[in-house]
Amino acid sequence: MSRSNWNRIVVKVGSALIAPNKQGCSSHYLLSIAQFIVKCRAMGTQVVLVSSGSVAAGSHLFPKQEKSDIAVKKAMASAGQTEMIATWDRLFDFSCAQILLTHGDLRDRERYVSIRETIFSLLEHGILPIINENDTVTTDKLKVGDNDNLSAMVAAAADADALIICSDVDGLYDKNPHEHDDAQLLSWVDNIDENIYQMAGGAVKGGVGTGGMRTKIEAAEKAVSHGIDTFIVNGFTELSFNMLLEGKNPGTHFQAHEQPMQENVHWMRHTSNAQGEVIVENDFDAELEFDTEQLTSSEIVAVKGEFSVGDTILVRKNDGTKLVKARSNYSSCLLNFIAKQDNEKFASEFEQKTGPIISNQHIANLEDE
């Protein structure tokens, strides 16, 4: 690896580093991360920081409350967010900016572009963006759920060259190093497949954060497909960051794809959630580059879910085979109405006047999933 070609990086820090004892924020483990960020900036590398920890930072203010209570958890996030930002701000002698996001912000194309522009403007003016999920207002429908995947979405939005995900272990092992003494560290991964996911296992039980190694692999898969080199490193040791500065790999390096997805295709596939489904016959013949003119109401078997014009939808075969994610040019209500018409001539003439069912400007092929 070489850090000499890093113009912009994203660093993801988890709750266990922010509030390791669940007694508010601690700078104990953050000092080395802050020094790494300062040194990167001094070398001309722009940095975006994705920081979890608002709930963990605020939990000590609600000692008699159950964290499982959603309203209380949102209150913890609200109180802890200010403490977390203040802690980071004290560690730097340059300006920081807070950006709180929900998945609703990221999956809406117009708001996504606005987020990109804000990040670029902050970086241009030498300000460090500090990004977190807006736990205070998010709902199950709007949340990303973990900041590992959020960091990958942010890295793609920021056009980063590298994503560095801090963990409590040195990287990805072939088995859980907390349970197996003979676990071997994988220093290099050039293909993320089911075998890699099996090594990751599930989330860590009893931990401070919401993620685990599996969500870090999910994040790596999103990032490398956008051409972003991804590293999982031990965030609890200063050595990890010193090695990164020296151009060495302290953990697991997931190699970026040589031919990354285009930005709009990556957003459609990995960031935008499908709000509904359009189901076609099993013998529907979709080319690799999906021809939007192919999909007409006569091929539609069913329409599932409720969606509006401009929403992302999933097009799949009746047997469950995923074909594409795309932006719909029709609402579910209108598409249902047209698809149910017995008069094919009416449907054909209607579509000729109003255009194709899905937009060919925002489409992501899923046949290789």
Automatic annotation (TrEMBL):
It is an enzyme of class 2 (transferase). ATP binds at K12, S167, D168, T210, G211, G212, M213, R214, T215, K216. GO terms for cellular component: cytosol. Its main location: cytoplasm. InterPro entries: AceGlu_kinase-like_sf (IPR036393), Asp/Glu/Uridylate_kinase (IPR001048), G5K_ProB (IPR041739), Glu/AcGlu_kinase (IPR001057), Glu_5kinase (IPR011529), Glu_5kinase/COase_Synthase (IPR005715), Glutamate_5-kinase_CS (IPR019797), PUA-like_sf (IPR015947). Residues 7-234 form the Aspartate/glutamate/uridylate kinase domain. Substrate binds at S52, D135, N147. Keywords: Amino-acid biosynthesis, ATP-binding, Cytoplasm, Kinase, Nucleotide-binding, Proline biosynthesis, Transferase. One of its GO terms (molecular function) is RNA binding. It is found in: Cytoplasm. The keyword S-adenosyl-L-methionine does not apply. Catalyzes the transfer of a phosphate group to glutamate to form L-glutamate 5-phosphate. Belongs to the glutamate 5-kinase family. This is Glutamate 5-kinase. It comes from Alteromonas aestuariivivens. The lineage of its organism: Bacteria, Pseudomonadati, Pseudomonadota, Gammaproteobacteria, Alteromonadales.
